[in-house]
Amino acid sequence: MQSLPKLNLQSKVSAEEWQLRLDLAACYRLAEHHRWGDLIYTHLSARLPGTDHYLVNAFGLTFDEVTASNLVKVDLQGNILDDTPFKINPAGFTIHSAIHEVRPDAHCVIHLHTKETIAVATQQQGLLALSQYSLFSLGSLAYHQYEGLAVNQDERARLQADLGQHNHMLLVNHGGLTVGPTVGDAFMRFYDLQRACEIQLALQASGQPVIPIPQPIVDNISKQAKVVHSGSTGGQLAWPAMLRKAYRLDPGFAQ
């Protein structure tokens, strides 16, 4: 069995970059814990503050192999900026680079192929207002139609236009995506989107009549969602607990 090269960048990068590496590596491990991974595919990326440089997973590693040190630093073109033995999946970074290019507030982008987000994204009505979880996403939800594998550079502009200033996206036939000003915010947004899709599919599978949330409540949810899942009362409050959980699951991510 071939072992992975072991890297230790903690003493070679700034404290700010190391903390971002810890947060992003923990997020990969948490995604794996929630069974959101897709073998060696799909990506979570994070921007280094004050730069146009980004951290993303090395191509060929499963989410539970990602560590703070083996995350790869790239620019918007996917050029590797680290002295690292690892490569990235250029096609996989296409979606992330397109969003980072036009959303300076989106310091973290999470794009995953969970069966639940794919299923709901592929339903003609998309995400429905059937649970409290759905409201967090519906307050800022976009859709992007399927155009094949994300290797066509012309698709970037359409993806950017479809996302606009939204923080959640369902990619038809493809999966889910969230963005946030921090890793914690993007994670919490994906958690809510994933849960909303799970609940919708469970309700549909039950075959029983459902009680939709009244439209006036849906229309007013954006203000409420901003209170619950932003700043010190949302993502940033939940993230330290998630980080502690990642350490309990496997502290190896912090290497």
Automatic annotation (TrEMBL):
It comes from the Bacteria. Residues 22-201 form the Class II aldolase/adducin N-terminal domain. InterPro entries: Aldolase-II_Adducin_sf, Aldolase_II/adducin_N. Belongs to the aldolase class II family. This is Class II aldolase/adducin family protein.
